[in-house]
Amino acid sequence: MPSASTGASTTMGATSSVTSSVRSSTAAVDSRLTPGGPGYRRMSFALFLAGVATFALLYSTQALLPLVSTDFGVSASEASWTVSAATGALALFVLPMSALSERFGRRTLMTASLAVAVTVGLLVPFAPSIGALVALRAVQGAALAGLPASATAYLAEEVRPKALITAIGLFVAGNSVGGMSGRVITGWVAQEWGWRVAVAAIGIIAVACAVAFRMLLPAPKHFTPGSLRPRVLARTVRDHLANPLLRRLYAIGALFMMVFGGVYTVIGYRLTEAPFSLPQGIIGSIFLVYLVGTVSASTAGRLVARLGRRGSLYLAGGTTTAGLLLSLVDSLPLVLLGLVLITAGFFAGHAVASSSVSHTAKQGRAQASALYQSAYYIGSSAGSTLGAVAFHAGGWAGTVALGLFAVLGVVTITLLGSHAARAQARHEPALAH
């Protein structure tokens, strides 16, 4: 029976080869980071610190705007440009920076961006005029543009898909901690020593975060260098913008951030006025409500698993709306509760939308994330400026009206997405028959 024996041997050899191939493929998939696995905690903490540094630097002057206005003798809308210039520059530079990350690597670009941003952060306290301050903040925002898109692209490449929303949620949670700690620290430091010393303190904290980030972040194992050719970049961007789902997600991110930027740019002015008349240190402590955003962002994965992406966005929009309406009441506890709801709704919506972008884009993830971040920070810049203008024209009610208009846009776009999904579901069975 030689032939039968040979056949069995051949079959077993083929089976062994297939099994080996499957195991090899599984091993390749398993090499990506997952919760509880080696390197995941280091990666999460490193990107958490990057998020802390990014938001602490980006919004370092936001809680100090009344003091900046007094020091330079400018209005609220003029002082708000110290925030808008940083977020606007970030929005303009995030796409070119994402292209550089495709060529030189995510970790390399994030490290360089943080290095430049913290250096400028140490120069900001010495700005001699409002014009110089705005210019330095614009440079800082442009440098920070290398962080958001590169971080989400790094996660999309290095983390297993099932853990992606949770991982991005942790990065967004770092943003919320950075935004909170930056404002709280600057509030109390500024009350004693002025806004310049307060901004310098944030710069020193950001230096420590940047050093720890570079030491902790694992080297990428799944990054493949891309092309810097303008045609390739333009084609990738065009493909992303042609995707209806991505377009909706970009608009949702911009509108959510318009609410958030407007509210937190103006809230300091409202709380310094009657009937509250709070000191700067207490106003800075108001930003402790960012801790709510840390929780809502880090639990976004479970929220999507239970309600789906669109259900989560509806919930985030409804929560934000309730917060805006509560904040209209001239009662400090209700204003604080309103800020809690606004913050929870915003960070949940942002985490869901940004992670959905990374999940949807199969190629050119850095550019897809960059387009989202660009829209997101355009929304922040517009919210900061328009929120201040609305406050000047109609008081806090004007700022709230702007926020409600933006949330209405989020709900409308999500409804359009639900309609498109139902239409596609009806169309696919028809094609099958």
Structure in words:
- This protein has 433 residues and is mainly alpha-helical.
- Helix content is 83%, strand content 0%.
- The chain contains 17 helices and no strands.
- It has helices at residues 2-30, 40-58, 65-72, 76-79, 81-104, 106-123, 130-144, 148-158, 164-193, 195-216, 230-241, 244-272, 280-285, 290-298, 300-326, 332-360, 365-432.
- The longest helix is centred in the last third of the chain and has 68 residues, at 365-432.
- The radius of gyration is 24 Å and the shape is globular.
> What would you call the structural class?
mainly alpha
Give unreliable regions as ranges: 1-29
SSE succession: HHHHHHHHHHHHHHHHH
Rg, Cα atoms, Å: 24 Å
Number of strands: 0
Outline type = globular
N/C terminus separation = 51 Å
Average residue pLDDT: 83
- Proportion of helical residues: over 70%
Which helices and strands occur, and which strands form pairs?
Elements: H1 2-30, H2 40-58, H3 65-72, H4 76-79, H5 81-104, H6 106-123, H7 130-144, H8 148-158, H9 164-193, H10 195-216, H11 230-241, H12 244-272, H13 280-285, H14 290-298, H15 300-326, H16 332-360, H17 365-432
Helix pairs in contact: 2-6, 2-9, 2-10, 5-6, 5-7, 5-17, 6-7, 6-8, 6-10, 8-9, 8-17, 9-10, 9-14, 9-16, 12-16, 12-17, 14-16, 15-16, 15-17
